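Q: I have 244 residues here and want to know how they pack in 3D. Can you give me a structure?
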Amino acid sequence: MILYPAIDLKDGNCVRLLKGEMDAATVFSDDPAAQALAFQNAGAQWVHLVDLNGAFAGEPVNGGAVDAILAALNVPAQLGGGIRDMATIESWLSKGLARVILGTVAVENPNLVRDAAKAFPGQIAVGLDAREGRVATRGWAEETDLQVTDLARKFEDAGIAAIIYTDINRDGAMAGPNIPATEALARAVDVPVIASGGVSSMDDLRALQATKVISGAISGRALYDGAIDLGEALAMLDNKAQLR
């Protein structure tokens, strides 16, 4: 299981939100590139990036910060937030991102996901963010009646690299991930599933790994607060950095 340290970008800073609320942002660093480099130096195999402003705006906003991060890193990075057309996908991948995460468009324009996965094999992930099992879009500001598993199954044959499942009510709350829901999704679809939201302790990581079906876990606040030591966690999970 791969551990993805997270950098959430708001107004050029590295922040964490509480349950997806932009007004409940805590700034952890005003130098996201330095933070990304620190994660790499600790042994991270991947870095997970989110353009929070972009998720609400529907287009990239923190491009300068992402460019600086990519210039600093030698390990692959994935990015979500505000990526809603093929031109944006192509632009980000051409700048050196290893993978882009499509969330809102997976609901609103699923054919774009399919076309992108065909055009960029192994570089397209789908981000499914949910409250009480129902998918939310547009920076979690809008809720749908779609069930996570039903939507995920629509992309099983599309050739996507992964599904990133976030339980919004757990995100940033240090309350532990929704392991039953994440495991159920991972068993229901033939696509690697990455857990996100509430991963806040070494025990959480052990429990996720123990399912044997969850391929990765994203953690942010717990790393910044010191609840998880990245080096120890990577050693426990036996992650090996794959320099590109």
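Q: Anything worth noting?
A: Residues 2-237 form a domain with the TIM Barrel fold (CATH 3.20.20.70). The mean pLDDT is 92.
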